[in-house]
């Protein structure tokens, strides 16, 4: 790329008009795309489809001569190229920042094989078709670059389109959604590498530049790591970096990207790796995500996708070209379909995902257009007809793929929905996703301790989220909008008197300390809503994040003197509504941070945890949660089973053979066992797996009524720092009479007793309620 073109140096006095028309064009794309999205969203279409259609409509309007002269001025191409470069640099850096590295590492084999399969199948299919195109288009020279450009452009996957579509379909937290994003990036990066190295081989002068820029990119990555650690220390009391400090990172990125582009080398991969290797914890990372996500997803990407549609033109094509255009689109989709199906069959990916994965990976644009217009000195075959045919095939393929993908999602909605809504049938080898909700740093520290306990072995798959709940009162002390107050938004909830001025900062500091010690990244989410609607937003968030359990703070907290104080009945009401409507299991954490459960990270002390088992689905869910506690070396877990005195069972556990969850489920469903037998089978499996190996302690307590149960709970109240118990267990003689003085029914009979400040129990309490429809969904699956 010519430096004069790259930096939009003015030519004569024609500086203002091209800039003016370009910004008007952006505004038109945004307006048209929102109009189309209003009608297409109810049909399940993703945003990129609407934005590309907006660009096509704007392109069709250029048929009018005055519109054509206004938008397509003689000097406007330089500005389009430069701003396209700026937009591409911004969102590729953000894509690298937001990418789930842990998922890519776990699924590296799958991503590589699917990438290889699609490129191989497309390459084989294009060979005979390209022989036909060479004769049809009368190509006389540069056959290698023609084949390369055609293969790379039409076998490529536009990763930004895939990412934006997956987010719009709310699949970005699902396994198949993240796999599609990974494969899209692998395919695009592979095509860029192949194209760049072949062109450098043909030119004979670019190889040295490429290795030089790789070294320079490595230096930028090291500088970013130093700045990311050093800049937060300059203003430790600020929640985010200043805007000037944020700008420093972009200046470095733009310098290296513009230098690379000026040498006719595409900078996309270099910028992507700068974002990918950026430190993932701390204030700097949080600042960049906070300040980049909204403008890029809501402005930059829509404009960029609209620009793809704006380039659509068939004015130079004749009727005989339309048939070839249709064949190109069909072969592009078929090639991707065959490659994905073969790879998925080999990898044993569930069949319900095969067609969706092949269609969503067929979207084009982005790098296909960039590579098509680059290195024209080695493309003597490049004509307006070939350009229009290439661009039209990219746009049509993208629109068809987007529509087909949304139709597949609509017809198989249940197959793509979140299935792991409870823990009882959740394999510990699978990823555990949990959401913790906090109002301030007081609740955050206790729930971070719980997250630390759940992440036992470093090899376990664990993804914790922390949602900062910011209640927005109906009547505020200021007329300013929420986003106009400050970046933390704390003042929007009624003033600093109630929540403190540094709640957000202290929460971030607690998370950063945990991340440094345990090497676990807690993903943060901010939720601002009125208390009347807070439970709905939490339930929507749990569904979008696809978590298996959500932890809520109890509406009371422990003071320094050991007594408890009520934080407000509004928080209690919210907990009740979440318990009733949550689309997953729920845990209410009664944090006694002074006398109870303490943070594990940074200390060598062992915490004694007791799981109380009376029977019932909630107790099974609570015991299932304890699966993740067993692998933590700082947790000593003991199962205390309460058995009714009138029980005829002589020995409840100890003689069973270890079963897999699926075998237990088949036995339960097939023989119609009673609830007591389901509890016995579940407990036997847990006993044989953990107790017989010495990982977990086991105690049996025989009681005949609630009074004896209370006596035992008082006796063991000082022995453990955390009690884990289910909420409901039906009418049981073991808890009879305990609800006569019940204060908090949402905790259940036993949980309410353990949480009461009037009892001699100083341990923290975790009360678990299983998702009510989880068993049925598991059977259906």
From TrEMBL:
Asked if Membrane is a keyword of the record, the answer is yes
* Chief localisation class: membrane
InterPro entries the record matches: Cation/H_exchanger_TM, CHX17_2nd, CHX17_C, CPA2_transporter, Na+/solute_symporter_sf
Where does this one sit in the cell?
Answer: Membrane
Note whether Cell membrane occurs among the keywords. Answer: no
Q: Gene3D superfamilies from the xrefs?
A: 1.20.1530.20
Q: Which Pfam families match?
A: CHX17_2nd, CHX17_C, Na_H_Exchanger
Which keywords has UniProt assigned to this entry? Ion transport, Membrane, Potassium, Potassium transport, Transmembrane, Transmembrane helix, Transport
* Start and end residues of each Cation/H(+) antiporter central domain: 510-600
Report domain Cation/H(+) antiporter C-terminal positions.
697-771
| Boundaries of every Cation/H+ exchanger transmembrane domain copy | 35-407
How does this protein sit in the membrane?
A: Multi-pass membrane protein
Regarding protein family, the annotation reads: Belongs to the monovalent cation:proton antiporter 2 (CPA2) transporter (TC 2.A.37) family. CHX (TC 2.A.37.4) subfamily.
Name of the protein described by the UniProt record:
Cation/H+ exchanger domain-containing protein
**Natural source organism:** Brassica cretica
């Amino acid at each position: 790329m010519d430096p004069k073109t790259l930096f939009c140096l003015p030519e004569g006095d024609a500086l203002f008009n091209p800039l003016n028309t370009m910004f008007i064009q952006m505004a038109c794309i945004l307006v048209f795309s929102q109009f189309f999205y209003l009608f297409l969203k109810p049909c399940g279409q993703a945003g990129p489809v609407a934005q590309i259609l907006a660009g096509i409509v704007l392109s069709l309007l250029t048929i009018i001569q005055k519109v054509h002269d206004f938008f397509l001025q003689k000097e406007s191409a330089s500005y389009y190229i430069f701003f396209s470069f700026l937009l591409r640099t911004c969102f590729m850096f953000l894509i690298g920042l937001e990418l789930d590295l842990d998922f890519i590492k776990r699924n590296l084999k799958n991503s590589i094989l699917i990438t290889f399969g699609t490129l191989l199948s497309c390459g084989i299919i294009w060979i005979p078709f390209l022989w036909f195109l060479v004769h049809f288009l009368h190509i006389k020279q540069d056959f290698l670059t023609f084949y390369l450009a055609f293969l790379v452009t039409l076998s490529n996957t536009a990763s930004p389109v895939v990412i934006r579509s997956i987010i719009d379909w709310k699949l970005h937290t699902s396994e198949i959604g993240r796999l599609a994003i990974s494969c899209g990036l692998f395919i695009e990066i592979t095509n860029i590498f192949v194209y760049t190295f072949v062109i450098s081989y043909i030119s004979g002068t670019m190889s040295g530049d490429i290795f030089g820029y790789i070294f320079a990119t490595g230096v930028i990555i090291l500088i970013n790591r130093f700045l990311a650690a050093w800049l937060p220390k300059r203003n430790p009391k600020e929640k985010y970096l200043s805007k000037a400090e944020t700008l420093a990172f972009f200046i470095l990125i733009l310098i290296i990207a513009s230098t690379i582009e000026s040498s006719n080398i595409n900078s996309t991969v270099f910028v992507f790796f700068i974002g990918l290797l950026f430190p993932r914890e701390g204030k700097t990372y949080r600042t960049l995500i906070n300040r980049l996500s909204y403008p890029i997803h809501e402005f930059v990407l829509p404009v960029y996708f609209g620009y793809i549609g704006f380039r659509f033109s068939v004015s130079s094509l004749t009727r005989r070209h339309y048939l070839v255009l249709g064949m190109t689109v069909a072969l592009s989709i078929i090639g991707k379909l065959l490659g994905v199906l073969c790879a998925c069959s080999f990898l044993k990916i569930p069949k319900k995902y095969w067609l969706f994965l092949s269609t969503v990976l067929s979207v084009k644009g982005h790098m296909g257009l960039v590579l098509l217009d680059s290195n024209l000195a080695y493309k003597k075959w490049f004509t307006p007809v070939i350009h229009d045919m290439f661009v039209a095939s990219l746009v049509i393929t993208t629109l068809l793929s987007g529509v087909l993908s949304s139709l597949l999602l609509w017809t198989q909605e249940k197959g793509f929905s979140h299935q792991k809504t409870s823990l009882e049938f959740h394999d510990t080898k699978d990823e555990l996703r949990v959401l913790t909700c906090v109002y301030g740093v007081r609740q955050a520290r206790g729930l971070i301790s719980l997250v630390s306990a759940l992440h036992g072995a470093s090899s376990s798959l664990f993804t914790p989220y922390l949602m900062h709940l910011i209640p927005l009162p109906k009547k505020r002390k200021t007329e300013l909008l929420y986003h106009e107050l400050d970046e933390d938004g704390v003042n929007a909830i009624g003033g600093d008197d109630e929540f403190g001025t540094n709640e957000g900062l202290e929460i971030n500091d607690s998370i950063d300390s945990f991340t440094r010690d345990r090497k676990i990244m807690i993903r943060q989410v901010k939720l601002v809503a009125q208390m009347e609607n807070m439970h709905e937003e939490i339930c929507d968030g749990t569904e979008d994040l696809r978590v298996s359990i959500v932890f809520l703070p109890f509406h009371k907290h422990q003071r320094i003197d050991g007594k408890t104080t009520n934080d407000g009945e509004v928080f209690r009401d919210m907990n009740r509504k979440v318990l009733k409507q949550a689309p997953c299991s729920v845990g209410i954490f009664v944090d006694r941070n002074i006398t109870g459960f303490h943070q594990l990270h940074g200390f060598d002390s062992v915490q004694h945890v007791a799981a109380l088992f009376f029977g019932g689905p909630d107790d099974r869910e609570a015991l299932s949660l304890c699966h993740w506690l067993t692998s933590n070396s700082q947790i000593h877990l003991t199962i205390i089973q309460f058995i009714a005195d009138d029980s005829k069972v002589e020995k409840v556990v100890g003689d069973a053979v270890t079963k897999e969850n699926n075998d237990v489920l088949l036995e339960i469903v097939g023989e119609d066992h009673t609830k007591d037998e389901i509890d016995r089978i579940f407990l036997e499996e847990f006993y044989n797996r953990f107790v017989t190996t010495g990982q977990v302690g086991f105690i049996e307590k025989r009681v005949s009524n609630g009074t004896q149960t209370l006596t035992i709970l008082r006796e063991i109240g000082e022995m453990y720092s955390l009690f884990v118990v289910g909420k409901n267990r039906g009418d049981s003689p073991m808890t009879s009479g305990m609800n006569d003085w019940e204060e908090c029914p949402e905790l259940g009979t036993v949980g309410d007793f353990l949480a009461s400040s009037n009892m001699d129990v100083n341990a923290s309490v975790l009360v678990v309620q299983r998702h009510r429809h989880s068993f049925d969904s598991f059977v259906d699956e």
